[in-house]
Every structure is written in C-alpha cells, then in structure tokens.
Amino acid sequence: MTKWVYGFGGGSADGDASMKNLLGGKGANLAEMSSLGLPVPPGFTITTEVCTYYYGHGEAYPADLQAQVAEALAKVEGVVGKTFGSVENPLLVSVRSGARASMPGMMDTVLNLGLNDETVEGLAKLSGDRRFAYDSYRRFITMYSNVVLGLGHDHFEEVLDEHKERLGVSVDTELTAENWEKIVADYKALVERELGKPFPQDPHAQLWGAVGAVFESWMNDRAKFYRRMHDIPESWGTAVNVQSMVFGNMGETSATGVAFTRNPSTGENKLYGEFLINAQGEDVVAGIRTPQSLTKAGREEMGETALSMEEAMPVVFGQFVEVVGRLESHYRDMQDIEFTVEQGRLWMLQTRNGKRTAKSALKIAVDLAAEGVISKEEGISRVEPAALDQLLHPTLDPKAERKIITTGLPASPGAATGKIVFDADEAERAAQNGDAVILVRDETSPEDIHGMHAARGIVTARGGMTSHAAVVARGMGRPCVSGAGDIRIDDKAGTFTVRGRVFKAGEIITIDGGKGEVLEGAVAMIEPELTGDFQTLMGWADEVRRLKVRANAETPLDAKTARGFGAEGIGLCRTEHMFFDDTRIAAVREMILADNEAGRRAALAKIAPFQKSDFVELFTIMSGLPVTVRLLDPPLHEFIPHTEAEMDALAASQGLDAEKLKHRAKDLQETNPMLGHRGCRLGVAYPEIYEMQVRAVLEAALEVKKTLGVAPIPEIMHPLVALGLEMKYLRELTDNTAKAVFEEAGDSVDYLVGTMVELPRAALRAGDLAEHAEFFSFGTNDLTQTTFGISRDDSGRFLQVYMDKGIFENDPFVRLDQNGVGDLIRIAEERGHATKPGMKMGICGEHGGDPSSIAFCEEVGLDYVSCSPYRVPIARLAAAQAALVAKSGIAREKDR
Ligand code: ADP
Ligand code: MG
Ligand code: MG
C-alpha cells in the first residue's frame, strides 16, 4: 500500500526535512520543525506523488487516498481536541500548497476552512469573540471563492468598500462583529448570484474542493511561467498541506508575521522582519495595512512610530528569537519564517532557506563559513552563479545629480532606468521591442510576474519590505522600490501623480532600489566594484575549479573587462568584427570587388596594418595569456550593402563602379548563407586572406614579445572545418606563413593551430582533424544549428511553440542540448584525444556562460570554457560548483 499522507504535529512527524521531493519544501520543513519540538499546529501532508497520480489519471485520486486523509484528520482532531465539522467545537484548517522548490505566491492558500453558518456560531461561542469568528468566516469565503470557485477578490473588495464607506470606517480592524456578520451575508449572496450556487456549507466538500484546487493550480499560467523561469520540471508536482488553524486575529495579544534570520537584501546578520497585530495570514504581505518592524532597532532604522514586536510583545518575542536561532543553526542557512501569535502563544507556520539578493547570498555564505557553520566548499555551493549577474552591472553614480520624485522602501537593490509602464502585459510587449521599462503599480500579484521579469525595475505604491513585489523582485534580481505611498496611479489616464506632479506612461525614470528612491530621467551609472565578499568567494571558487575560464572578446574594452573579471585568456576573438570599422571597411570592400588575386592582395595589404595593430593591442592587454584568433568566418556579402540605393551611395562616395558593385553583390548572393561560402571555405578559395591574417597575428605577437618581454600565446583557429584534408591544407598554409614571418623577423613565437568544431562531420571525424590540429574549440552556436538543422535567426517563430508544448524543455541555443549536441562533443573529445592525447579542448559558444552547460563541460573533461566578459565570474563560480559535484558530491540546492 502506498503511503499518500504524512502527519505532523504534537512533537513528532511521519516525515522530515530530507523528504522534500515527496512532501514538498513546506511539508518537509513542517515535519522537521514538529520533530524538533517546536510549536507547530498539527496537520498532514498529501504527497507530490498524489499530484503526479492526479495528472496521470485524468485528474483522479488514488483509491485509498480518502481513507488515509480521514485517518490523518482524526489524528489531528485528537491532538487539538477539536472536531472537523463539529458545531460546538469546530476544527478549522488551512489548505496550503507546497512544491519541492519554493514557489512563493505561485499557489494559493485557503485559511479557516471548515467554517459555515453553524460552525461560525460555534467558533464565536468557543472563543467568546463574535467579531473574530465572523472576521474569520469572511476571510474564508473570500479565499475559497477566489482559489477554488474562481470568483475574483475584487468582487468582495467592492462589497467591503461599500460597507466601510457607509459606516465611515477606513481600516478593517474598526469593523464590529455586527458589521462583519452583514458583510458575510452579502458575500454569500454575491457568490450565489455570480455562480448560481450557494457557498458550500459541507466542511468535507470544502476540504476536497480546496485540495483539488491546489493540484489544479500546479498547471496555472503563472506557475508554469515561474517554473520555466526557474527551471523547475513540471513532473515534480506539488504537495498539499492541511493544517489546523491558529489565529493571529484574536485581538491585541494576537499577531502574525514573517521573519528572516538575516537581512535578505544585504546579508547582515540581524533578525529582520515585519508583523501585524490582530491579523491573519497574508495581511502582512498583502499591503493592506502597513506592517510593523519585528525589532526595536529595525523600527528605529525605518523611522517608524508603531511599536515593534520586541516592544509590544516582549515575552513572546524572546521565545521567538530563541526558536529562529535554533532554526538557523539547525538548517545551517538563513531562514525565511512565518509565524503567528495566538493570544500570547507562539506558533511556527513555515521555515525555508530564504531567498536573497546576490549581495546577500555572498555575504551570508562567506559569514557562515567564517562562523564555522559551513565549509568553504559549501559556501561556494550556496551562491547561484547566474545571480552574480546582479552585481556585475552598473549602479548609480554617487556624484550624479538626483532629482527625487519620491521615496519608498529599499525593497530590492540595484539601479535601473526605463520608461514608465503600468501594466505587466505592456511591460512584456515593450521589453520584446527592446525598450527598457520600469513597471509602476499599486502593488503586484502573481499575475504580474511576467511583467516584472520583463521590466528593468519595479515601483509599487503600496506594500512593505516583504510584499509580493519585494520578495519576487529580490528573487529575480530586479531593483525594486516598494510602498512609495505618495504615488497615485491613474490607470485609465496612463499617469501617476506625486504631490500634484504628473508623470506619463513612456516617460523615463530611474530607480535606486538600494535607497528606495524614484528619480527623474536617466541618471549616470558607474561600474561595480568587485571587492569584499565577492572577491573572497571567487577566490575560493578559483581554488577548487579545474576548468579554465576565458572570454569571447575582440575589442580592447571587452578584453580589459574580461581580465578585470578574471578571464584567463581569450577563447574566441572574431576577426571579422575588426573589418567593420569605418577606417577599414573601404579596403575590405575593395578586396571583395577585386577581379583577381593580385587585386585582392593589394587591398589586403591595406588591411594588414590595421589587423596587426588590433592584435598588438589585444596581446598587450592579455599579456602572456592564450588568445584564440578565429580567422575570417562570415560570407563576404555581409560586408557590402544590400539595397540598390545603398550600393549607389557607396559607389558614389568611394569612387567605385556602381554596376560592378551590383554585379559582384549578385554573384555573392546565396540561398542559404549559413551553409554557404563561409568559414575556412573562404581560406581555401582565397588563401591570401588567411595568409594576411596569420601574418598579422604572428607579426603582432613578435612585436609584443619585444616590447613586453613576455611572448603572447596565439592560437590560430580555422572555422567551419569538416574534413581532415581541409585541416591539413589550412595547417600547411598557417605553418608556411609562420615560417616566412619568423624568417623575415629573425625571431619566433610559439603558436598553436586548431579548429572550431561546429559541424557534425567535424565532431564525428575528430580523429582525422586531430592529426593536423593542436586544439579544438567547440563552437556550440553553429554546432547546435547544424545538428538540429535549425537556423538560430529563424527559430524564433516556432521555438516558443515547441517550449509551450513541452517538446523542447529549454531553448537549445541557451542551454546546451546535452543529449544530441552533447553526444557529438563527447564523440569529438574521445576521437580527438585518441589521435592526439592531451590536445587542448574548450567551448566558445553562448553556452560557455551557462552554468548547466559548464557542468557538462566539466563532466566531458574539456580544458576551458569561454564566454562573454560579463559572464566570466558566473562561469568561474559555475566551474567551481561543477568541480565540487565531481569531487565531493556537494551540490547546490535548487530552492535557494
Ligand atoms: P505561501 O506559500 O504563499 O506563503 P502559505 O501556505 O505559507 O502560502 O500561507 C499563506 C499565509 O497563511 C501565511 O501567512 C501563513 O503563515 C498563513 N497560514 C497558513 N496556514 C496557517 C494556519 N494553519 N494557521 C494560521 N495561519 C496559517
Ligand atoms: Mg508561506
Ligand atoms: Mg561558427
């Protein structure tokens, strides 16, 4: 018999923290906290396997689920001393989702389930608090209707607002028992009117309705989007937690709150969080009332007057501090905690490894290692490589003038400039058109996630430091200012107003998420300084990684940036980029138009000095580090204009023969340029071009050797080779040119000759190629194109469809297809090394900066990865993590 249901509470549990796959993160940690003896309201978890079963069996449950739930529910009733559905002594429960990896706000929770017209009276009598009972009931009706019955919150808010207006009341806490009773009656009438059915009164029907809704929510659009963004497989499924209710809304000695054991923005080792007295569940994060700080220090820092929990509830606060301290040492990581105080009694409702900014992740990892809580290796595994991106980008120049529009809370650090948009869909559209936008909203909800992702930054008028906007923005690494209370948004007009000043959609603003400022216009930015914790952790990473990290760079600026970020050489210098410069393109065109070799050589002689000086600069910057130079790769027609008018203009300005130009352009036209006359096929047809390039590389190397006293390490790379004989021809061309150059100079440098492996045939016949090549660089962009037969430039039209239909799990141009393309790389590695043991191999496609692809390179045993300069630190960390997995099995947890 399969165990579908795991109980927890009352000092013990069926499961524990290691069972996240089965119980989901929330369920596993509730079980763990129960076993630790912490005060957890008892409940049970329906496993993720039920979710998998549900979707595998036409949305049906396993046959014995009902009996197991009944048994678990009876146990809870025993511990709590209440009965589900009883009128005199009703047990109420929450129904909570909980996937393996935390998906905050993705799935909806229903609180106070079990209430109906009769049990609400029982609850009123039992608690001696009618107001509380009806407050709970109205919350339940709203949540249940929304989550299970699909009736939007706004319907209920409208009714509530009408009542408040009529009563002249502005905050919910001012409403009396009688008020709530009337509101409940109106709510029920609303449900019946809108849905044609009365609100369900049977607690068991309510329970199964809510359980079904949790499973259903696994497949809603926002959950799908979040999974795609965070790489969470659909097959994981969610668990459902059913837990006895505790009430933070039972008056002034009750409260609910959220806490982080360390600051999630900065990583500072200080308890951090917010709470609300006489409130329930989501009130703190929903931004309906402004939450208060947990600690006195926090309150003073924020300049708040409302008492902190430390001051208002010193005794419970003391217990709380002890519990969260225990949780952090137990989990050995910063915890994100939910709790409730019911009439002076503390209850723990959730703990998980807290989401954090990159800055905070670095500090916490380095601090925990320094505190001896974790090892350096674990420290390395705690930081998500891709998150470093947040730190590698510019911040506002402290010297730049700031015209402050308004200030809010510093919800997520970083700076961003963009056009104002008010709508998530609009943000996504604008971003697709290449516009930088700032999403400005009253508050955000899970429906806005795609827009938040598309935006450069987020501003909300309402909500605190733990509001949806703040939490999600920090997780995504988007700068965010929340609770900018002066902002009045007029959606219809497409404007927001701050103290009489109007800002329109499309206007440029800048935000400083670290300070909580919203600023006029674009503000100057500066490059980040990578010192402190960043440097410490990268130092640790460099100690453990085996893979070398190089950069793809051709301009001096890129090369300098790459070195600054710790690149150990250049893995791909694309020489054609050097041809496009205004000063050279004329000579390049002259070469293309030449009728014969002599004409081409004459033009090439004009380009040669430019090429040489480019390489001198690069070799100087990369002093003593290897530089892989790829010889000319694109088809020649890319260098001449395409339209008749452009060609006429060019001919006129350059004194060229317009007819000849057009004729040549026609000659060069190809049906399928990606598979046409390009790569080494140019070098074979026009050897003088490659000769000039090889000469420029080696002459530059000789010159730098003289001036610097350190010999550069040029690696001359021939693109798009498919045949052993091609490689042989190119090898001889290169060596003969080198010989001539060295003889003329009376000096020499060491150099390597190799090829880019970017055609399936090259991978399959790597043994032939290796006879003439000294290194391979896997050009995985083209290798992916040629393996799939998909042109990257044309894939946009159908790739999304493939991903939506689950045929492609990822874009193979972003994440290496480790099966197909990966097989070719494995074969090439094997066959290449069989011919030439120890020959150097690396990867230089976009994939060189993608952490999971880097892990693949580690497995295959390549020597280096090469990526864009800004991804070099990410690659260094990813390479270290890959080495750790290989060496000691220390892996990074998905839900950090
Ligand atoms: P999420 O994953 O969105 O945080 P949760 O299931 O954790 O959803 O719950 C939403 C809110 O309801 C949280 O504030 C949580 O603390 C509160 N809550 C959940 N279950 C209970 C319960 N049994 N008693 C009191 N509050 C609860
Ligand atoms: Mg929660
Ligand atoms: Mg290529």
UniProtKB/TrEMBL annotation:
Cofactor: Mg(2+)
Domain PEP-utilising enzyme mobile: 436-516
Domain Pyruvate phosphate dikinase AMP/ATP-binding: 64-301, 321-365
EC number(s) given by UniProt: 2.7.9.1
Keywords assigned by UniProt, alphabetized: ATP-binding, Kinase, Magnesium, Metal-binding, Nucleotide-binding, Pyruvate, Transferase
InterPro entries according to UniProt: ATP_grasp_subdomain_1 (IPR013815), PEP-util_enz_mobile_dom (IPR008279), PEP_util_AS (IPR018274), PEP_util_C (IPR000121), PEP_util_CS (IPR023151), Phosphohistidine_dom_sf (IPR036637), PPDK_AMP/ATP-bd (IPR002192), Pyruvate_phosphate_dikinase (IPR010121)
Family from the record: Belongs to the PEP-utilizing enzyme family.
Function: Catalyzes the reversible phosphorylation of pyruvate and phosphate.
Protein name as catalogued: Pyruvate, phosphate dikinase
